[in-house]
From TrEMBL:
<dbReference type="Pfam" id="PF16575">
    <property type="entry name" value="CLP1_P"/>
</dbReference>
<dbReference type="InterPro" id="IPR045116">
    <property type="entry name" value="Clp1/Grc3"/>
</dbReference>
<feature type="domain" description="Clp1 P-loop">
    <location>
        <begin position="34"/>
        <end position="210"/>
    </location>
</feature>
<keyword id="KW-0067">ATP-binding</keyword>
<keyword id="KW-0808">Transferase</keyword>
<dbReference type="GO" id="GO:0051734">
    <property type="term" value="F:ATP-dependent polynucleotide 5'-hydroxyl-kinase activity"/>
</dbReference>
<protein>
    <recommendedName>
        <fullName>polynucleotide 5'-hydroxyl-kinase</fullName>
        <ecNumber>2.7.1.78</ecNumber>
    </recommendedName>
</protein>
<dbReference type="GO" id="GO:0006396">
    <property type="term" value="P:RNA processing"/>
</dbReference>
<dbReference type="GO" id="GO:0005524">
    <property type="term" value="F:ATP binding"/>
</dbReference>
<comment type="function">
    <text>Polynucleotide kinase that can phosphorylate the 5'-hydroxyl groups of both single-stranded RNA (ssRNA) and single-stranded DNA (ssDNA). Exhibits a strong preference for ssRNA.</text>
</comment>
<keyword id="KW-0418">Kinase</keyword>
<dbReference type="InterPro" id="IPR027417">
    <property type="entry name" value="P-loop_NTPase"/>
</dbReference>
<keyword id="KW-0547">Nucleotide-binding</keyword>
<dbReference type="InterPro" id="IPR032319">
    <property type="entry name" value="CLP1_P"/>
</dbReference>
């Protein structure tokens, strides 16, 4: 299931744009920016297929983590299409960068760095690099787009808008790139939140369809993206004191700049403590949490679902479709912020500060 599929039933200016891109000096970086359901992915698919037919080597970077086309979900992905394709879902990613959530508002830095990393790979092999982005264009989304454009400096940035809703973004981006203004196609259709969830559900289900439960040795593969595991383990006395003070079942804990405690509440009542002194992680929120397997270059080999952890032995159980050969390359297990099960149902998002 994909929102956008290949079509040549597009406004006339899209054909003119294709000619313009084909005539530019190569290599060329082109970023597509627009609000939700503005037709960015449809336009990218049209341009990619047109450029392929003209004999150009094309790279596609899918950074729309909310409506990901190229698997796995919650990552940024790079693909090199070799022939005409119907949708981004038909492409196989050759490199990925882990974000770990489908709502990247708190991850502007990672989003920008990830696109830059994939662009650096793509530009060495492609004539044209087409970069799809999220529909997040206001507030933190505007800053995310600015960071991406400032880091990557695309020669062309395609700005799709319905009226003049991106006028401020246009001013912000103008110093770093040439902007081409495009009107949203009248054929662009808005999708409901439920439709979006169903699309994501199918993507998750497809990715994990061949998943197997594996044991991960956290002494060999470093856990990252969380304050857990940092510092010295808490003593039995410290755990007992925290349990008595706050009526917690203290499952694990560490002392670094502050105490980090993995706990379960034994009683329900307001607890008052300084967040600068104690950081808590609810044990139940670790179940079915998305994690990424990261290689020595900081790229994502694939993702998994965190099922269980034995803190004393530093062993975790993770469901993943990665092969043993792929897992051998993993140096980090990076914690994401979305909980999902292998059938595709999303159980909820975590705030960055929760881990």
């Amino acid at each position: 299931m994909n929102k956008a599929t290949y079509t040549e039933d597009v406004p006339e200016d899209r054909f003119e744009l294709l000619e313009r891109i084909a005539s530019e000096d190569k290599p060329l970086k082109v970023m597509l920016i627009g609000g939700t359901d503005s037709g960015k992915t449809t336009l990218l698919t049209f341009l990619a297929n047109g450029l392929l037919e003209l004999g150009f080597r094309v790279a596609v970077i899918d950074s729309d983590v909310g409506q990901k086309g190229i698997l796995p979900p919650a990552t940024l992905s790079l693909a090199f299409p070799e022939e005409r394709f119907k949708s981004l879902g038909d492409l196989r990613g050759v490199a990925h960068y882990f974000i770990g959530t489908t709502s990247p508002g708190q991850y502007a830095g990672e989003m920008a760095v990830g696109v830059r990393r994939l662009t650096d790979i793509a530009i060495n092999e492609a004539d044209v690099v087409l970069i799809d982005t999220t529909g997040f264009v206001t507030g933190p989304g505007l800053e995310m787009k600015r960071l991406k454009v400032e880091l990557i400096k695309p020669e062309l940035t395609l700005l799709l808008e319905r009226t003049d809703e991106l006028s401020h973004l246009r001013k912000v981006l103008a110093p770093y790139t040439e902007i081409i203004d495009l009107s949203v196609s009248q054929k662009a259709r808005e999708h409901s939140q439920e439709e979006r969830r169903e699309v994501r559900k199918e993507k998750w289900k497809t990715y994990f369809s061949n998943g197997e439960l594996i044991e991960v040795d956290l002494k060999k593969i470093a856990p990252t993206g969380t304050e857990m595991f940092l510092g010295r383990p808490l003593t039995s006395e410290e755990k007992d004191l925290l349990a008595a003070l706050f009526k917690w079942l203290v499952i694990a804990g560490w002392k670094n700049e502050r105490y980090t405690v993995v706990k379960a509440d034994m009683e329900s009542f307001p607890r008052h403590y300084s967040k600068s002194v104690i950081h808590t992680v609810d044990f139940e929120k670790l179940s079915n949490l998305l994690v990424g397997f990261i290689d020595g270059d900081g790229l994502c080999l694939g993702v998994g679902i965190f099922k269980w952890v034995n803190f004393s032995e530093m062993k975790a159980q993770v469901l993943t479709p990665l092969t043993p050969e792929e897992l051998e390359k993993a140096l980090e297990l990076r914690f994401g912020r979305i909980r999902v099960i292998e059938t595709g149902e999303e159980l909820g998002l975590l705030q960055r500060k929760e881990l």
